[in-house]
Design goal:
280 residues, Rossmann fold
Length: 280
C-alpha cells in the first residue's frame, strides 16, 4: 500500500511496527492519548504506535503536549480533532429514530445504562465483584432497571464467577448496535461506562456519565466537567452517579474545545494526500 492509517490503541495498532519496517508511511489517528497507568494494556500499544508512526494525528492539545514531552518532533504531530462529532452528527437522525427504548420497555430517565469491558476491570475478580456491587446498590436505591450492554469478555467472566448475586433489576443484554446504544445513552438517568469514547459521547450528546476507572486518557473531559472519574470502589461509584444525576449534563455549554471540530475527515484526508504527494 501507499500508506497505512491506524486508528486507536487496540492490539491491531501494533501493525504500525511492521508497516514501518517495510518503509510504508504510517498515519496514527488518536495519537498522544496517555493515562500514565501501565495496568491499562492499551497504554503500551499507544506508546509503541506513536513512536514508530511517521505522522501522529492527535485529537486534543493535551495529546499533542504528551507527544512533544516524549521527544516526538513537532513536524510529526498534527491536531485533527476527534471524528466523534462528525460521526454523531451524521447518524443523529438514525439515533433519534431508534426504537431501542420501546424495544427494551424503558422510560426516558428511568433506567441506568452500563458498559463494562476493559481488561483491567473485568479480568480482575475482586474488581468485577466491586463493580457488580456498585450496580446492585444503584438498582436497590433507585428501583429502576440497570441495563448492561454485555461485552463477550464480560459475559465470559460472569459465567466463570458463580458466586455473584446481581440485583433482580440488573439486565444483562447482548451488545447493542451503534444507533440503539447511543439512543439509550441519551435518555438514561446516568451512563456508567469504562469505554474510552464515553468522554466524547457524553459531552457531545449531553448526558450524565461516570467512568468506573482509576485513570483515563481523555483529561479534557475532566477539565470541562462533563465526566466523572469514579474509580472502582462501590461507595465512590454510587456517590459519583448520585452527583452526576443531580448536576445533569448540558454538555454543549462547556464542551471541550476540540470536541467542537466537525471537519476531522477533511483534515485527515488533506494531511495524507499532502504527505503522499510530497513523496511523489
Amino acid at each position: 500500500p501507499d500508506a497505512v492509517l491506524i486508528l486507536g490503541d487496540t492490539n491491531s495498532s501494533i501493525a504500525a511496527v511492521m508497516a514501518r519496517r517495510l518503509r510504508i508511511p504510517v498515519f496514527h489517528m488518536e495519537a498522544g492519548n496517555r493515562c500514565f497507568d501501565w495496568n491499562v494494556p492499551e497504554e503500551t500499544n499507544r506508546r509503541i504506535a506513536d513512536h514508530v508512526s511517521n505522522y501522529n494525528l492527535v485529537y486534543t492539545e493535551h495529546a499533542r503536549r504528551n507527544l512533544l514531552a516524549e521527544g516526538i518532533h513537532p513536524s510529526r504531530v498534527y491536531l485533527t480533532g476527534s471524528p466523534m462529532r462528525e460521526v454523531l452528527d451524521y447518524y443523529r437522525p438514525g439515533i433519534e429514530s431508534s426504537p431501542a427504548l420501546t424495544d427494551q420497555d424503558l422510560t426516558p430517565g428511568e433506567y441506568f445504562l452500563v458498559s463494562l469491558h476493559r481488561e483491567e476491570n473485568v479480568d480482575q475478580e475482586l474488581t468485577m465483584k466491586k463493580l457488580v456491587e456498585a450496580l446492585n446498590r444503584l438498582a436497590d436505591r433507585h428501583e429502576v432497571p440497570v441495563l448492561v450492554s454485555t461485552h463477550p469478555r464480560t459475559r465470559l467472566r460472569l459465567e466463570e464467577m458463580t458466586d455473584l448475586e446481581p440485583h433482580e433489576l440488573i439486565r444483562w443484554h447482548a451488545p447493542f448496535g451503534f444507533l440503539d446504544y447511543n439512543k439509550l445513552q441519551m435518555h438514561a438517568r446516568c451512563v456508567v461506562s469504562d469505554s474510552g469514547t464515553i468522554a466524547e459521547e457524553s459531552a457531545i450528546l449531553g448526558f450524565p456519565a461516570v467512568t468506573p476507572r482509576t485513570s483515563m486518557e481523555r483529561p479534557e473531559a475532566l477539565d470541562a466537567g462533563t465526566l466523572t472519574l469514579a474509580g472502582i470502589e462501590p461507595d465512590v461509584v454510587t456517590h459519583s452517579v448520585e452527583l452526576a444525576v443531580a448536576l445533569g449534563n448540558d454538555g454543549a455549554s462547556h464542551l471541550p474545545t476540540e470536541y467542537e471540530i466537525s471537519d476531522t475527515s477533511v483534515r485527515v484526508l488533506r494531511l495524507i494526500t499532502g504527505h503522499l504527494g510530497e513523496q511523489g
